[in-house]
Amino acid sequence: MSSAPPVRRGHTPSSTARGLPADTLPPDLDESTASRPYTEPEQPPLAPAGTGTVEIGTPVSRIDGLAKVTGRARYAAEHPAADLAHGVVINSTIARGRIVAIDCSEALALPGVIEVLTHERRPRMRSLDLFYKDMTAPAGSPFKPLHDERVHYSGQPVALVVAETFELARHAATLVRVSYEAEPHETELLAHRERAHVPSRLKAGYSPPPKPRGDADAAFAAAPVQVDAEFYSGVEHHNPLEMHASTVVRGPGGHLTIYDKTQGSQNSRWMVSHVFGLPRSKVTVKNPYVGGAFGSGLRPQYQLLLAVMAALRLKRSVRVVLTRQQMFTFGHRPETWQRVRLGAERDGTLRAVLHEAVAETSRREDYVEVVVNWSGQLYACDNVRLDYRLVALDQYSPIDMRAPGAAHGVHALEVAMDELSYALGMDPLALRLKNYAERDAAKDLPYSTKELRACYEQGAARFGWSRRPPQPRSMREGHELVGWGMATGTWDAMQMFARARAVLHADGRLEVSSAASDIGTGTYTVMAQIAAAAMGLPLEQVSFRLGDSDLPVAPIEGGSSHVTTIGSAVEGVCEKLQRQLWKLARQLPGSPLTKVRFQALEFREGAMRLRADPSVSLPLAAVLRSAGKDSLEAAYLLLPQVLKQKKYVRAVHSAVFCEVRVDEAFGTVRVTRVVSAVAAGRIINPKTARSQVVGGVVWGISQALHEETHADHRLGRFMNHNLAEYHVAANADIQDIDVIFVDEDDRIVSRLGAKGVGEIGIVGVAAAVSNAIYHATGRRLRSTPMTPDKVMAR
Q1: Catalytic residue IDs
Q2: pLDDT one-digit tens code per residue, 42-56
Q3: Are 530 and 570 in contact (CB under 8 A)?
Q4: Quick check: 6 pLDDT over 60?
């Protein structure tokens, strides 16, 4: 039988959130758009009148907030088209095997049902794996929807019903009959660890574990104090509020304008043009607003290709929206088993670190994460051995989720460090300071900047860590045990390459553009703020265009790299405008700036003026008018300073302090206080940056206590694929969260001095919660989520 989604009335995708790691773009994605028809981008949001001049470091409210709360912001499933048809996906009910037959007759007999696409009823598509590899694809053979009769995982799309209305398509999907020939499947990681293999290295951004240094096994065996612990993290699913959707609008000449739920419009265009053999001039992908993604939008999801299939076959516009249940039928944070062994002297000096991990992947691709490498970097130790392997299962390939690899790997290390502190009778923070790493020993390189020690100091002072009694079960309030725990967080500080374009108009308006994405992180606001600060213009006169594949090239939004990359490109293009204005000003008759060097100027209050004497100035608009120009335009290509950056390790750091209250009778845990002290370079907008860290802390609590996937391995299927049974943290689960930004300025990572804050907020949170539970109860929990049954277990 088919697996059709239950019928319901309508849908309303909306809202905001966040996402993770990315990739550089192929060299043929340049900024030239001369061969494609121009389509007017969505109007970018503007700051309210009277916002005024802003500087880097000013807390600014989101300029896209009004559009979102009033409904003017349209998401992927909300863009209209006159001839729009609706597609609904049918998913497989077996985990492995082949499709024997698909009976579409009953569905096609319904008035208003237009087509049922299957592997036998679809438009011509390319077959080579190369055409299906998006810009973040790992090594292997990408999944190809409706390619052939093979079933690779439970929930695989096997058909698409297209009808005049969404409701009719949902109903017709229940009438399609699919017959299968099932084959034995394997979906359980722990049952197949013995066949783990060393993964391929062919994924941008992936660094395999470094070679061992010293003799970690011998050092561990000789260490007087030892910790040997195993950790397990179950499958975790992305659940952004906006479900994945694609609206394909067929325009004149067959041009496709696609509104896609994606973290990279150019990545989606790349895949569509390659899979269907379409020139890029025939495809425009837009994502002006994205209701959260958390990494689920880094790779194009299957609804995109299904919607394009239908639009090409029917020669009309088509929309495909996944249901909440179908959001569990593509990649997820992988199930992971880890073992950490730490050996130390009695004074706390680390003598050995051994960290091995085994994670799941699909049978088609080697999905990889940096899980264990952090253990060779975070603390000083001469003897380190790290290992990372994969087990291929009958699942969809996992995909990046906020802080991929670190959310699991740092968790295991930090819980093991806490366990070591108790074995030593040493304060957990003192142990970390004892083994503080001034350099990255794995690469033998200094850090570009590292203010982790300040994170420890400021976070501990704000939390009141010095008042913590060392013994477990030593604090109680009423019927609840109280525990305090802490952990370290770290993440890479990345920069990629990008282009930006800027146009300054004679009326003082500045328009800046790049094919960036805003997945709820505040990209619109921060980029406009950077441009306004650079040009000395009021924020309401500056607009930033993003979310359109026809705009200048930008990397996928992920890995906490957008500010360092797009932000640097924006500042770079503004500097080019500044120099053009300076040259024009020098040529004006009677100009007070004729002999002034560029370095002596500053741009403030809509004018260029002498730093030493601000009274000597020229308004920017007056310079353009006097030169007889309606506008001035500049383009800029940001290329990371690779030769300079490779001399350093670039990272962000945090210290997380947590208070929990545990009711042992029910096994319930309440996280009542979190202090997160973060060193992430210059903070461009403290208000939106704080929101990012708070969001990460909320998800860290959710990872620690709530998000649990239940699988029936007899069926090879996730069973709790809805928000009623797959629990995420709600408002009632979140109490006081305090964020500290430690002063840091990193001009190695970016010309702005900034790093990224999206990922670092979640790293270390679950470990701090786990360590606080131990302090409260004396019970060590080594698997997530830490549900009441585990808390009660003795």
Answers
A1: 759
A2: 689 999 888 888 999
A3: yes
A4: no
